[in-house]
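Internal ticket - ligand job 913, NAP:
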Amino acid sequence: MSSSLRIAIIGQSNFAADVLELLLERSIFQIVGVFTIPDKGSREDVLASTAASHNIPVFKFASWRRKGMALPDVVAQYKSVGATLNVLPYCSQFIPIEVIDGASLGSICYHPSLLPRHRGASAISWTLIEGDEVAGFSIFWADDGLDTGPLLLQRQTNVEPTDTLDTIYKRFLYPEGVKAMGEAVDMVAQGTAPKIIQTEVSATYDPAMFKAENQLLDLQQSAERIWNFVRGLDSVPGAIATVLEDDGSEQQVRLFGAHIYSAGPVKGGQPLKLKGLAKPAWVHEGGLLIEGTDGAFVNVRRIKRGSKMINASDWFKQAEHQPITDFTDDELAKRTQLSGIWQAILKEPIEATTDFFAAGAGSMDVVRLVEEVKEAFDVPLENEHVFMAPVFEEFFDQLIRSLRQGSGDASAKQLNYEGFLLQANKREIRVPTQLFINGAFIDAEQQRTLDIINPTDEQVLCQVACASVNDVDKAVQAAHKAFFGAWKQVSPRQRGQLMLKLADLMEQHKEELATIESVDSGAVYTLALKTHIGMSIDAWRYFAGWCDKIQGNTIPVNPARPNNVLTFTRKEPIGVVGLITPWNYPLMMLSWKMAACIAAGNTCLIKPAQTCPLTALKFAELTVLAGFPPGVINVLPGKGSDAGQAVADHQLVRKLGFTGSTPIGKHIMKSCAASNLKKCSLELGGKSPLIIFADCDLDKAVKHGMSSVFFNKGENCIAAGRLFVEDRIHDEFVRRVLKDLRSMTIGDPLNRSTAHGPQNHKAHFDKLLEYCERGVAEGATLVYGGCRVPNLKGYFFMPTVFTNVEDDMFIAQEESFGPIMIISKFNGSDVDSVMERANRTEYGLASGVFTKDISKALSFADRIEAGTVFVNVYNKTDVAAPFGGFKQSGFGKDLGQEALNEYLKTKCVTIEY
Ligand code: NAP
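stdout (structure tokens):
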């Protein structure tokens, strides 16, 4: 190999810089000079800086020629380095023949096409536009023609259907091109470099695509040619189409992300007229659909309007966004300050149209910009805001918008909704009363509404929208679109951050939420604060932590020798999830289910109980402030018989999470099977046994026994539905319970000293009256309550105690879901039969035992058929512990890690190698 090669590199950009680095690795060559373009502002080309870092002389010429003649001074400077070979890796300048022939061994030049095809500056674009099946590059000996010199080497690759100008360059033309330049120089050094004369057969010289007139997309051609043209200019500069607006005006746009569309007709698209196209194109949820002259379709995913890139599916939504024009002096001063930050990063003068990324910024620059802007303007900002608004003027517009909002939150939106002003608990709280679909509050179809009754005074509190079957469909479509669109773009960790932000907002608004919950459901305020809202917040925080820890396994399966096999599982979200919840803990039931569902990566719609939807609607407002993309969470108050049923029946809902009564649970399971075999989990009713042995700590047993029944006025799914009290302590237990009940404060749930509020709604209240009448009729002893609280308006039901309850009585078998204690005696010598009696129910939600005998306690835990077992405690649930019933109390867990699995599906992948 000749070591006397003295190389001049003439070119620019990363490609040339990489070729330079490669040649420097071959220490036998001498790089005697690098010739490149002048600096742009204060930013020099990367080839110049790479050369300077290796102490190679750098020459920056604006031009090598004037009026077709080589500039003598420039040629003299070139000659001064004494090169024996010119290497032109990527050169945009016209190099005079005096220089091309100025090196004794000549000049070798990289060209990104298989010459003689696609001579000219836009070879890669034309490779795609012409639908070539192979792409490639050539290294040729430069002569005085345009890409006509003899060939030294060529390399080729198949053009893939997914290729665009960007992909083919990045995956092949660039990396293989750099390597091949190194090989070509080696061949020159070894004297083995061929000079193969180019034939003129099949030669083309193609127009330069940097001229705007050449970028116009001709729509009068086949779908395939339209597709090839768009991908040939993707991502720079983009094919130009013209939108014809309804008012007769025209708007030029650029199209990106094209593919042939063969999925059949689109549903729910909106027509968009394009100049040169006889039939309208269609904006649909997957993009913009254009019909070619052959009747086939091209779909375009992204559109650039002005400097802003949008999803084509958002075309009609984006039209509403008007830029700010009325800047104040202070805002204009901020503009100057912002421009200074941009300039310091980009090292070039900043104009309104400066694009952060086109100016060469990388990911570290994004981090720096975000940090500096946050510090300078005291405004929260995320990296994604830079990606959403990469052009200076847009970025400034976005900054001013968030500063004007004053919330300090760049993602916060001004929420418009119809609501009512709740004045309670020394507060004024705005509560939305419309359906929440696709990130906005809207009326129900035909303005249908439901009356919301305050159980404390039986008055109408407000009216809320009542979802119809069509409204449910609208929400499902929004959730479906979000699942396959915006939500997919949110990484698991970002998902967790959104959930944490939501939990923080719930915490900030917890007094408001607890007040609404208390007024709407009758829950005592302090309990609402601690449990209804407190445990809801805990659930969001707990499941937020799971988002980036959902992982599969690698599984050692048997390989088919001699091959090896890798098998692994992926845990994937299911899709659109429907949630249906009851009225006893409205926000907590929502949160238990939805936090797990969202953490797993699903989108959802919830139909809360028709009697108490208000906290769910306030919660919906907070999801917007937290920054959840539209469609991920939808809230639809409505009736179970139509809206709830529509959720269970919907073909696009793939999982249903239900909490409610056993009869409705059975009905729903049938609907899930009949519609589309959707997965379901059912948290249903209970009749939980609590056994109190004489050897217990009686004070504790009375305290917990009381709360096992009267907590949340008995509207508690795990409420102890039946107490078995050992005969030796039975009377004393009853005496103490009655004593405590007589001192229980009943009244306004917002009053801090109240222990017992009104029942949730009238139908339920009436059922409790009937339940007690039946107990009396069957011969049980009513020792306390069993009736309305005298002289009190509202659904106030007396805490009630029945004794002498026999196993076959209705009240021994069926759930009351109210503040009714059902007590049966047992003899301490017959532990087996009390266990057997405790299991003699079709329910299996929870259970409890009070005893100091650890063997008895553990034996109970072994034998009881219930999803939850409490020992010497009751109602001790936690968001980290799985919760859910056995038998006709349903299946599937809420809470804990197990709840995640309810909202995930497992995919098994096997690879042979
Ligand atoms: P429910 O009558 O079964 O109602 C529950 C939910 O289902 C409500 O949103 C209801 O809408 C809706 N619904 C009614 N019919 C429907 C249908 N055909 N299709 C779809 N949805 C329908 O129960 P509830 O009276 O609200 O709640 C009390 C029951 O829930 C009790 O049995 C209690 O034990 C149980 N619960 C269980 C748990 C648990 O974790 N296991 C927790 C809390 C409560 P409407 O509002 O229009 O009726």
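Auto-summary: Residues 407-413 have pLDDT under 50 and may be disordered. The chain has 28 helices and 38 strands.
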